[in-house]
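Dear Dr. H.,

I hope your travels went smoothly. While you were away I took the liberty of generating a structure for the chain from your last submission, since the lab meeting agenda had it listed for discussion. I wanted you to have the full record in hand beforehand rather than looking at slides cold. The sequence, exactly as received, is reproduced here:
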Amino acid sequence: MDGDYLSIGPRDLKSIIVGCQASHESVQTLRDLVKRYAQNVAVRYARRAPNKYCLVIED
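The corresponding predicted structure, in token form, is as follows:
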């Protein structure tokens, strides 16, 4: 731990999945943080499937 933060290596986290109910502001904040501190981490998005009860994860 580094204060309130967990230190991880640059290859430890491959992607972050944003929930389907995340606000636009939250998504933008997350994208800005990834761009600034973790360019190698993909941001993916959970969306509700239109024709069945499930989530679809998109890039």
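Two observations you may find useful: The two ends are 30 Å apart (CA to CA). The longest strand covers residues 42-48.

With kind regards,
E. W.
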